[in-house]
Amino acid sequence: MPSIGRDDVARLADLARIQLTDEEIDRFAGEFDSIMDAVASVSEVATEDVPATSHPIAMTNVFREDVVTTTLSQEQALAGAPEASGGRFAVPQILGEE
Amino acid sequence: MTTAPALVDYDDAIARFDPVLGIEVHVELGTATKMFDGAPNIFAAEPNTAITPTSLGLPGSLPVVNRKAVEFAIRIGLALNCQIAETCRFARKQYFYPDLTKNFQTSQYDEPIAFEGWVDVELEDGEIVRVEIERAHMEEDAGKNTHVGGATGRIHGATHSEVDYNRAGVPLVEIVTKPIPDTGGRAPEVAAAYVRTLRDIFRALEVSEARMERGNVRADINVSLRADASAPLGTRTETKNVNSFRSIERTVRYEISRQAGVLDAGQSIVQETRHFHEDTGGTSSGRVKSDAEDYRYFPEPDLVPVAPSREWIEEIRDSLPELPAARRRRLRGEWGYSDLEMRDVINAGALELIEATVVAGASAQSARKWWMGELARIAKDREVELETLVVTPAQIAELQGLVDGKKINDKIAKQVLAKVLQGEGDPAAIVEAEGLAVVSDDSVLTGAVDQAIADNPDVVAKIQGGKVQAIGALIGPIMKATRGQADAGRVREIIMEKLGVG
Lengths: 98, 502
Prior knowledge:
The structure holds two protein chains of two kinds.
Chain A: H1 6-15, H2 22-40, H3 42-45, E1 63-64, H4 74-78, E2 84-85, E3 88-92
Antiparallel strand pairs in A: 2-3
Chain B: H1 10-16, E1 18-28, E2 65-66, H2 67-79, E3 83-84, E4 91-94, E5 104-107, E6 114-122, E7 128-140, E8 144-148, E9 160-164, E10 171-177, H3 187-205, E11 217-226, E12 237-242, H4 245-264, E13 272-276, E14 283-288, E15 298-299, H5 310-318, H6 324-335, H7 339-347, H8 351-359, H9 364-382, H10 393-404, H11 410-421, H12 427-434, H13 442-455, H14 457-464, H15 472-481, H16 488-499
Parallel strand pairs in B: 12-13
Antiparallel strand pairs in B: 1-10, 1-11, 3-6, 4-5, 4-15, 6-7, 7-10, 8-9, 11-12, 13-14
């Protein structure tokens, strides 16, 4: 049976950039366990001859032709930006990463 | 941080360690539009203008796969002798960085479109190294960050970045090799030759302009060392975005020397990304490599699987052009060059230029003579690549045509070439405009011959006394008098007639 411990929750929260309190970590660890147990019941029927399914509808090859469509203007593109500079989105420097 | 151990001399490192390479090459596809939306795929537009709501990942926008990009990916896969997946999916690769707005890059994870291939790489001396390809997968490029601050002189150095998303969503194919063993001291050369081989293939396939300097082709270079070929693989480092062949060689060389130093000091190699520095030729530590799980890949729910039909794949296979290696073999045969001549031509980057010159009407030998002789010398003097010289293959063929037609001689041809390189026009027009054509008009030549005979009685006496080779001493002043344009053969005949020898 899968088990999601406090460390796993803390790591996931960190990866997802979500700040959790100790209480929340405790609570989520328990809830995740229940969820994982429930999901794990699928594996009781999903035998090896059942392919992994990522899409509920059996559809493939939805393509578009390589044709240019309407684009946004720079003004439209930046309309929702909290800050812009020189036609670019201004974002906080993320230190310590490339 | 402790001080980094000293670098080990390259030859010493190679004598005691066995390097293993792994190379990831990203190529930007030359489609008209992006991978998942209809924004134009162009370079150097005004920032944030080549974008749609999908390029920006705006709420409510949905990606749709570009059929042409899939076709190009399959072309690349087939050219690299890969198998093409019966079905494959896109996946979200999740990371937080503002070069993409969605907090994930749409990529492929466990189901690449192409896998299990190989490509033969020819080194400068003709040795062939077979590089095994692990996979080639489709993904989207990211936007471009410009880091501002610090250097702008603000008191608090309040830094921020500015992002242009024109490149976000441009179709990429990433090609990953299997570990490349057994290259020994030639590892740097193999790495560069491999990327060059791919670059040439991309161009032949017409899937990308593949210009390194524009970042159309970018290489991540993995290097590890082990005691010998029977030992398990050592811990590798990955030097990101190395963008020229020379930098690739220097990166591999440096990493071999650096890692040997670390291992000699009894320390372990840290699995990390590193950055190459053009100015020092060294690499520096970037971030510690995250495990694959950190990206929390999962199948992209907004895109259905790609399942290329076998018919489509065969159609694409049939449409593949002749690949560079086969083409070189064919041209060498057609042109009658020796192996060595052909390698020199390839290494000088003159293959396409010579081919075009031959197509324009020159013989293979004369085309080679120009590009590998006078033009190579000029390019070397100017420290530029041959292909950047301002002269077209058609102009070279025209120039040679003037020589072959005895309109100008070799010496004048070089003068004409210099004028072509200065942008003065086509060779024939220059010869016409400047009156450089060979003078074979007897009335003009006879006058010059008479003058030379009158000026050089000693020489004349020698010639008449039987020393026919002294004729050269008369031809010199005549060439000078005619600015080098006299038809030397005709001049000789006239002198012999006049002096009654021969």
